[in-house]
Amino acid sequence: MNIYYLVVLLFLLFSSKANFLVDYNSAWFGLEVFMIIVAFRLKKVKKRDIQYFLTCLAVYFLYIAVRFKLNKLPADYFTSDVFYFFKFAFTAYLFCVILREKALYYLVKVISHLAIVSLVFYSIQLFQNGAIVKAIGTTFESLTVDDGSFRYTNFVFFTFDDIHYYRNSGFCWEPGAFGSFLTLALMFNFLINDFKLNKEALIITLAILTTVSTTAYLGVFLLFFLRYRVLSRGSKIAIIIFAVIFALAIPNVPFLGEKVVEIYEQDIRDLKELEQLSVYYEDVERQIPLNRFASVIFLYEQFNWKLFLGVSNQYDEYYINEFNVNISNGIMDFITKFGLVGLMVLLYRYGKLCRGYLRKTEYVCYSILILLILSFGEPILMLPICVIFIFLPTFKKQDFSALSFDYRSKYLPLKRPNTI
C-alpha cells in the first residue's frame, strides 16, 4: 500500500459518513494533520497553491458573511459555516493538493477494492437476514463506539442495516449513498480509461446492482448512454430509441415507476399531516423522515428567497423545535446550506473537470445530469467526495483521455500526453 492509496482510503472512509471516526472532530483534525505532513513530505505544496487556498478562503468568508447579514440568524450559524470549511472543504483541498492528476485513478482503484470487500460481506449478509454480519458489527462496536442503534451496525469497511438486509450498503451509511459513490467511481473509470469495460468497471457495476438503489440505477443508465454517445457517436435516431426504451421502462419496472409515484404521493400526505406526525415521532423519540419530494417542498416553504444564497450549514435548527424532520433530498439540502449560487459554482467546476476528458458540451451535460440524479436521493454534494470538484480542476494536469482516433484527431492533440 503506497502513501497515495492510504490517503485516498482514509479520505473515502471519512467521506462515507458511516463509521465511528466521522463523529469525532479530533479524528478529522488528525486526518488533516496527516495529510498536511504527507503534502510537505512529497513536496506537493507550492506557493501558488497557498495563494489559491487563501483566495478560496477569502471568497467563502465574504459569501457567508453577506448571507449571514441578510438572513439575520444567530451567531452560531456563522460559526457552523466556518467550521464546515475547515472540516470538509479543507480536507477536500488537501486531497487535491496531494493527489492532483492521480486523483481519479486512485479513487477508482480504492473504491473498486472497497466494492470487492462489500461484495464479500454482502454475500454473507444474505444468510439468516444478515445475522452474521450484524454480529461482526456489534462485536466491533463493543470495542470502539456503540451508536446505540438496534438495527444499524458498522465496522468501518461495511455497514449493515436491518431495514436494508437485502441491499448492499458497503462502507457508506446506506445503500443509496454507496450506489452514488460507486456510480461516480464508474464514471471516473470511464473518463480515464477511454470508456473501456475493464476489470474495475465490471466490479463496480456488479456492486451497484447489489445496492438496489433507484438513483444509482438511473445514474448508471445515463452513464452507459453517455458511453454509447462518446464511443459510437450515435445519430439522433439512436437517442430517440434510447429515450423511448427508458420511457417504456419507467411504468413497467417497479423500482422506477411505481416507487417514484408512491414516494411522491406519500410525501404529499406527510406534508398535510405534519403536525400529527410531529406528535407521534416525538413520542417515539425519532425524527419525521421526509422523503425526496416532501423535503423540497418543506424547505422551500421554510426559507423561500433565502435559498438563493443559502441559509447555513446548520439550517435545521431554524425549524427543529417546531418540526423535527429529517431531510432526504441531497440537492435541496445543499441549496439550503450554500444556496443556488453555491450549487451553480459546484456544478460549473465539476463540469470543467469533466470537460477536460469529454471536450464536448453535450457529453458534459450528461455528466452533470448524472451527478444531479445521484444527489437527488442522497446528501452527497456537501461531502468531501464532491467538494473536491471545486478544487480539482485547478490542480489537475491536462492528461486528456484518448477515446477513439476520430475523437482525438478532432478535439485533442495527436500526441497523447503521458497518463497514469
TrEMBL record:
The chain crosses the membrane at residues 28-43, 50-70, 82-99, 201-225, 237-257, 334-351, 363-392. The keyword Transmembrane helix applies. It comes from the Bacteria. Keywords: Membrane, Transmembrane, Transmembrane helix. The keyword Membrane applies. This is O-Antigen ligase.
